[in-house]
Write a structure and sequence with these properties.
Length: 344
């Protein structure tokens, strides 16, 4: 499947794509230098070959809060541009580390990748120990990945090695059907997550009514038209796909709203559910975007490194960890290191 439009498979008919958060690969490098008095200097560098990747992700948007931020745009010989964003921060002894890279954007902070960082000193008879611990909090993924594998990847695995030109019309239709099915299921899962997050909980009959409404919207999608859009190439294809996605999104939200309004004519339930539904969709997009991002975290501690945990690598006065974003799917990633400044 080599034409440009066929590379947009996972976007087509996806109402979540209307939220402009999906970015590409970002390299994240963070260096935390701990000083003998227990203070720390933090430097975080974000690099991307797409100027939209970093601003549209979860990393330091318009208001960086306590961070000092500097952007540098470079242009290579072919005219392609890349962005490097450097953020720095000083933490006083006993001070708290930021728990995300969303700056002062409170709404984004709740959705973004969160991590808890602890740094403490311990005085013992043989010297002063410096303990560093960071926990990257897990991103829920399996609830959707299971269905992606069952309804998209598994049924279509025999087509993966085929060139686009080799696909029969029925095989192309199968792809269109699978795409619509998985996007419908993803929407159902996120709607259920939104319902679970409400307080008080949405009554089960209303939740099931929303479920039925979402199924109806996706069952009504013309999958033959989906295949036609995938056959298109260039900017025209992108524009048509965007319009199709927006149309599905508008129909979906309108239908859900009408379903909830019938149960609660005051509109209160509808407004609360729709706001939470949108938050769950954005949370999912950020989680999906993290998958191909590369993390490098280096912690430099005073004295001699005496221990560090899994997949860390000691280098002189520092410990470095490197992992990809999908390591965060459904499990915490924990970084730990300890050093000692021995008494003379």
């Amino acid at each position: 499947m080599t034409t440009p439009a066929w590379h947009t498979l996972t976007r087509l008919a996806c109402p979540m794509a209307a939220v402009a958060l999906l970015a590409g690969c970002v390299k994240r490098q963070e260096t935390i230098t701990v000083l003998p008095d227990g203070s720390a200097r933090v430097e975080a560098v974000f690099e991307s070959e797409d100027l939209e990747d970093i601003p549209n992700g979860d990393a330091l948007l318009e208001d960086p809060g306590p961070w000092t931020v500097e952007d540098q745009i470079e242009t290579d010989d072919d005219g392609d541009q890349s962005l490097t964003r450097t953020a720095t921060l000083t933490i006083p002894p006993g001070g708290e580390f930021p728990e995300h890279f969303a700056g002062s954007d409170a709404d984004l902070a709740e959705l973004a990748l969160n991590f808890t960082t602890e740094l403490w000193c311990e005085h013992r008879p043989d010297g002063t120990y410096y303990h560093f611990r960071r926990v990257y909090h897990r991103r829920d993924w399996a609830r959707i990945d299971y269905f992606r594998h069952k309804y998209l990847e598994e049924p279509l695995k025999t087509l993966e090695e085929k060139d686009h030109a080799e696909l029969t019309q029925q095989e192309r239709q199968d792809i269109g059907d699978a795409l619509v099915a998985i996007e419908g299921i993803k929407t159902l899962v996120l709607a259920e997550a939104a319902a679970e997050a409400l307080e008080p909980l949405l009554p089960q009959d209303q939740r099931l009514a929303v479920d039925r409404t979402i199924r109806d919207v996706f069952e009504d999608i013309d999958t033959a038209r989906v295949v036609e859009l995938l056959e298109m190439e260039g900017e025209e294809a992108e524009a048509e796909i965007t319009r199709a996605v927006q149309d599905v999104n508008e129909r979906l939200l309108r239908a859900i709203g009408q379903t909830l309004d019938r149960a609660d004519r005051s509109g209160t339930t509808t407004a609360v559910f729709m706001a939470q539904f949108e938050r769950e969709r954005q949370r999912y997009l950020i989680t999906e975007d993290l998958k191909d991002e590369n993390f490098e975290v280096t912690v430099k501690l005073p004295g001699e490194i005496v221990g560090y945990n899994t997949f860390g690598d000691a280098d002189g006065d520092g410990v470095e960890w490197e992992f990809e974003g999908d390591a965060l799917y459904d499990r915490d990633v924990v970084l730990m290191a300890t050093s000692v400044v021995r008494k003379r």
